[in-house]
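Objective 1b: paired records.
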Amino acid sequence: MGTKAALTAGTTAVALLLLLAGCSATPESLESKSDNVSQNYADNYEEVYRRLTSTARRCVTGGTNAARNEVVSNLHQELGFAVVRFVVIGVFADNYFLSAKIEKMGSGSRVSVKTNNPIISDRLNKKVFRWAGGDQECNP
């Protein structure tokens, strides 16, 4: 790897760490945040969960050598909800930066999103709602 490539990789890693500064280290601390945004869907929560999870895994997963992005999801059919979390798995710690809860609401569902980084929260929220609604594009 040349000096220029190493410098670029190092700059990218530092920028990623700065972007994620203030992110939650645990799912519990992210869940404890009181601010969230939500949107309702006419579709069953299991279908919304499937759409969101499959598109997020395709669009979010990946990363650099220093950190990689992953999607962690759990469907709790017996309780009528699901959770999808975006996490940066780093060298020293994992940083959870988005949590989407998909709840059964009658015959439809509600998606509530919490993020821990105000710099990217609006953009991420919009993506989550698009993906939950069936849009499969990673970047519009």
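Objective 1b, second protein:
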Amino acid sequence: MKIRDIAELVSGELIGDGDGDVEVERVAKLSTAANGELAFVDRADGDPASEASCVIVPMDLEIASQGNYIRVRNPKLAFTIAAKKLNSREPRYGESRPAIAGSADVRTVNIGNFVTVGEDSSIGEGCEIGDGVRIGRGVTVKENTLIYPNCVIYDGVEIGRGCVIHAGTVLGSDGFGYVRDENGEHLQFPQVGTLVIENNVEIGANCTIDRGSLGETRIGEGTKIDNLVHIAHNVEIGKRVLIAGQSGIAGSSTIGDDVVIAGQVGISDHVRIESGAVIGAKSVVFPNKVIKKGLWSGIPVQPMDEYKTQLAQVRGIGRLRESVKRIQKHLGLETSSTDDTER
């Protein structure tokens, strides 16, 4: 791809040597980039010196070295857009041996080995289905979605356009819902709902998203989910939500638009997290809690300012204890070795 085309793609200004016909084939880190590669500098005080064929730089960065540069308002975003174009994938599967049901409507030839597609399922044009993927009955996979190897898509799941499902993920499995009978046995509550994944969602490796029990579980458009995340039945997740690795969301919780959930966050059932909330790593949200817009952290989760105050108070307990001991000594008060302050 010519750098003049990259500049046009990212709405940037081509400066420097001005050779817009230079070809770029891939992206690279600034310090290791070589001929034929594109790099970027994110800060106005950064050093753009590189062996790269072209460097994307901030609007206010002074350029003293020779080379080709593209000035933009947001270098990291522009680099990401260019990388997506440069890294567009060629179909990787040639002759393969999928098992496709007679009533399935499959409109892509880019299917790996040992894939199974169930009755009445449909796969749109431009999709890529990796080796060993199991697609159940009545599944819909819309155009240009990429499913990496060894994923399992249960019956009735709907996946939107332009989604990416990484290896080993399971979509539409039964939720964890049981009713105790008169003998104390746990009987599974019906898990006959579905899972709907809207357009441009990315789901990391080895995630599990359960179907609804009677209704649906829904993942909103543009949401990005990291590896090793579990989302339970009847959860509703809004648009453009970010969920980092090893987080878990229990049943019937609702997540608004543009929420950020950091790593190892535990969200209990029937929680409502309003749009724009940010929850810090390792936090726990107790059942039926309502989380409003803002920064939250802790166990149990609380507004960030309150959490920081509480943390400072806890750290000061040792100093407080020593102060109490000095006061007791000054007043001549005897303390037992078995007193709580000595334990």
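Residues 317-331 form the longest helix (15 residues). The chain has three domains: 3-86, 99-302, 303-343.
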